[in-house]
């Protein structure tokens, strides 16, 4: 990882919202892709019953072969569907892979079958948490997502929100240490309460997350909106970057306050996220 914070810039090429769609509902794939989500996740695991696994796998492969984009959540390494999933997805080189209940062993098993494939490690277990730094550095891992529902169940911690924030902070720190883009927060199960969803996003954002898993298309717009920089944040970042330009390498002072380098780098990264050029003459 470079001192200039290259992962911050890499983050800005990453989706903000990831929308799950059941693998056995191919009629919903295109609708999910048109929902405004940064990426769809075609789910072969939790959303699909044992009797429908083969059908879902075939439908997902057809989606990718026909030019569809997204991520495929495969079944776990401890299931009989793991090997068929890997064999099938090998024919879809453009598809990302989400590895459920991620451990170092599971990630190595996937990357050995799919070398070079970008993997999203879904942290859902205490075992995965205890392996966090090795997990973040495992071959192929491009981002970590928090499976808050399964993690809470495995850890015997009730609730999926603030009670799990210490885990979220560890995920954010491990991601940064490994040079990964900032992580993806888990789901909000209440599909009707947009205030609760917005509060979950704001809290995750404060802990270093820059994306969220969505269960329903109606959550996508809220996720995209709350994770986006506010007008006030953009304006302040513009002023900081412009002040640095005109300081010509000298001490940077804005509004009577010294601006140190971490604040300047954060301002530059925010402008990248907002699609605003770095050239101060355009600010």
Give an overview of the whole structure.
Strands 6-5-4-3-2-1-8-7 form an eight-stranded parallel β-sheet. Strands 9-10 form a two-stranded antiparallel ribbon. It has helices spanning 6-11, 29-33, 53-65, 82-89, 104-113, 126-130, 132-136, 148-155, 165-177, 194-206, 220-227, 231-247, 261-273, and strands at 17-22, 39-43, 71-73, 96-99, 119-123, 141-146, 184-185, 211-214, 253-254, 257-258. 40% of the residues are buried. The chain is built from 13 helices and ten strands. It has two domains: 6-227, Phosphoenolpyruvate-binding domains (TIM Barrel); 231-282, no CATH class. Mean pLDDT is 88; it is low at 1-12. With 283 residues, the protein is α/β, with parallel strands linked by helices.
Which descriptors would you attach to this protein?
10 strands; TIM Barrel; 283 residues; 44% helix; single chain; 2 domains; eight-stranded parallel β-sheet; alpha/beta; two-stranded antiparallel sheet; disordered N terminus
Quick synopsis:
By secondary structure, the chain is an alpha/beta fold. The protein contains 13 helices and ten strands.
SSE layout and pairing:
Blueprint: H1 6-11, E1 17-22, H2 29-33, E2 39-43, H3 53-65, E3 71-73, H4 82-89, E4 96-99, H5 104-113, E5 119-123, H6 126-130, H7 132-136, E6 141-146, H8 148-155, H9 165-177, E7 184-185, H10 194-206, E8 211-214, H11 220-227, H12 231-247, E9 253-254, E10 257-258, H13 261-273
Parallel strand pairs: 1-2, 1-8, 2-3, 3-4, 4-5, 5-6, 7-8
Antiparallel strand pairs: 9-10
Helix pairs in contact: 10-11, 12-13
